[in-house]
Amino acid sequence: MLKQKNKNDEDPLFQTLDGTRLSPRNVLRQFKAVGERIGCSWINLHTMRHTYASRLFKEKIDIKVISSLLGHKDVSTTYDIYVHFIDNVVENSVQVLNQGLPDKLPEKNRKKKDNVTNLKKASTH
User: In whole angstroms, what is the distance from residue 90 CA to residue 106 CA?
Assistant: First the structure.
């Protein structure tokens, strides 16, 4: 559990060990340290944000909802950044149509009618 040095109502919810307000740099430094401890030194807050959005797309959450959750002012911003995920969703959706189809479709088994032969037979009688 997180322990706060200062617990007064006017004190910040998230504090440094000294009880002061966290700076963005402090948060990034701590995040990087945790990533290194768990063997993911490559991870950063942007990676986490992108992973969050990617997982929402994979679960087929509406782009308007994703855009709102990410805090984008315009849905077009979300679309421009994550268009490759949208393309994959469309491709996967079309693949649903192929489910249940046999690998090889049966060939037509109808014999062609040879009208010319039938006409010749008719004219000789």
Answer: 28
Cross-strand pairs, 18? none
Instruction: Tell me the per-residue pLDDT of 6-38, one tens digit each, with 9 for 90 and over.
Output: 677 788 888 888 888 888 898 888 889 998 999
Judge contact between 82 and 72, C-beta under 8 A: no
Question: Where do the structural domains in the chain lie, given as residue ranges?
Answer: 1-43, 44-97
What does the DSSP 8-state code read for residue 98? G
φ/ψ (deg, to 5) at 15:
-130, 160
- For residue 114 the two structure tokens come to 């040879």
Q: Is residue 16 within 8 Å of 3, Cβ to Cβ?
A: no
Identity of residue 74: D
d(CA 11, CA 105): 71
